[in-house]
């Protein structure tokens, strides 16, 4: 790693303005990220504890040397390939902000489809207010659901203790401790009882595919690797999930874009006389397996 101040070797003893720093740093990042200015605004906002709007309206604000050194280091980390979310320590999902770190996956826009579908269903089923979020990670799914459905009670489980610690931070951050309970569990064990809603974003990337992806360098492999075909864990859940589902309950599982047909086959094997379908994300890719335990 280059020494602090390498972006501005002649400015180690001087301060510079926000506008000057943005212009120079943008040129450095253009080769490394599709949205260099957005990344720089996020770095500045996080370091200065100000909003991006404030930064835009204060282009002539002088940055002290100590701040310049910190934000330069963060730019170096972006150039080295580290996810911006881990650098700033938080990320937005479904309109809410969540603490993140390398123990949990970075929340992605594709997963918002699961939350949207769950909220839509819960609003039309007012008596269904008990849910479980399997593989909760940062807790972003469970917390988003609890934010929108005021009387929803949720068990959020994960096999990783560090992930559960992060989820606990976010539950405290969003004041959801009275409505979300955390549990260390592998899939549905040792969960007991039946639920109106069972949702999960489980590891679904095939091992060989994961080996060629940059995401494996920084995000937790345990939360990504779905075994040889990517469906081992999802298949295991589908085999067992029905006995945990109430009579008119709903299952929502995020899947890889090429897993729709296979997950439909698995679902029809373990569920009969139910509504089973695949929902597509905004890009038109298969993204969500939906199983509604309702008689056809």
Question: In words, what does this structure look like?
Answer:
The structure is a single chain. α1 packs across α2 and α10 packs parallel to α11. It is built from 11 helices and 11 strands. The longest helix has 15 residues. The protein has 2 domains: 73 residues, Ubiquitin-associated (UBA) domain (Helicase, Ruva Protein, domain 3), CATH 1.10.8.10; 190 residues, 3-Layer(aba) Sandwich (Rossmann fold), CATH 3.40.50. It is an alpha/beta fold and 296 residues long. The N terminus is likely disordered. 33% of the residues are buried. A 7-stranded mixed beta sheet has the order 7-6-5-8-9-11-10, sandwiched between helices. A hairpin with a 2-residue loop joins β3 and β4.
Strands of the largest sheet, in order across it?
A: 7-6-5-8-9-11-10
Helix-strand pattern: EHHHEHHEEHEHEHEEHHEHEE
Instruction: Tell how many strands the DSSP assignment holds.
Output: 11
| CATH domain class of the largest domain | Alpha Beta
Radius of gyration based on Cα positions: 22 Å
Please mark out the parts with pLDDT under 50 across 5 or more consecutive residues, or reply none: 1-6, 8-13
Shape: elongated
Gap from first CA to last CA: 61 Å
List its salient traits.
elongated, alpha/beta, 11 strands, disordered N terminus, Helicase, Ruva Protein, domain 3, single chain, Rossmann fold, 2 domains, 7-stranded mixed beta sheet, 296 residues, 36% helix, two-stranded antiparallel sheet
């Amino acid at each position: 790693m280059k020494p602090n101040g390498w972006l501005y070797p002649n400015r180690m003893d001087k301060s510079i303005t926000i506008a000057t720093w943005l212009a120079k740093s943008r040129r450095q990042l253009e080769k490394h990220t599709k949205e260099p200015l957005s990344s720089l605004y996020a770095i500045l906002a996080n370091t200065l504890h100000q909003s991006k709007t404030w930064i835009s309206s204060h282009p002539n604000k002088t940055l002290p040397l100590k701040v310049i050194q910190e934000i330069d280091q963060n730019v170096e980390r972006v150039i080295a390939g580290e996810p911006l979310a881990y650098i700033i320590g938080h990320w937005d999902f479904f309109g809410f902000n969540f603490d993140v770190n390398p123990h949990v996956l970075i929340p992605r826009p594709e997963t918002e489809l699961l939350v949207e579908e769950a909220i839509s269903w819960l609003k039309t089923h007012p008596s269904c207010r008990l849910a479980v979020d399997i593989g909760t990670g940062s807790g972003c799914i469970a917390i988003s659901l609890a934010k929108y459905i005021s009387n929803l009670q949720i068990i959020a489980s994960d096999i990783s203790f560090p992930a559960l610690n992060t989820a606990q931070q976010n539950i405290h951050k969003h004041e959801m401790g009275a409505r979300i309970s955390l549990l260390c569990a592998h899939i549905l064990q040792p969960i007991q009882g039946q639920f109106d809603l069972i949702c999960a974003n489980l590891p679904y990337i095939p091992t060989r595919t994961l080996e060629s992806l940059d995401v494996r360098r920084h995000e937790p492999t345990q939360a990504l690797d779905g075994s040889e075909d990517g469906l081992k864990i999802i298949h295991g859940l589908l085999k067992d999930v029905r006995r945990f589902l109430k009579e008119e309950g709903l299952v929502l599982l995020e899947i890889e874009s090429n897993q729709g047909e296979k997950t439909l086959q698995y679902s029809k094997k373990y569920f009969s006389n139910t509504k089973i379908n695949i929902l597509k994300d905004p890009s038109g890719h298969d993204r969500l397996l939906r199983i509604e335990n309702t008689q056809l």
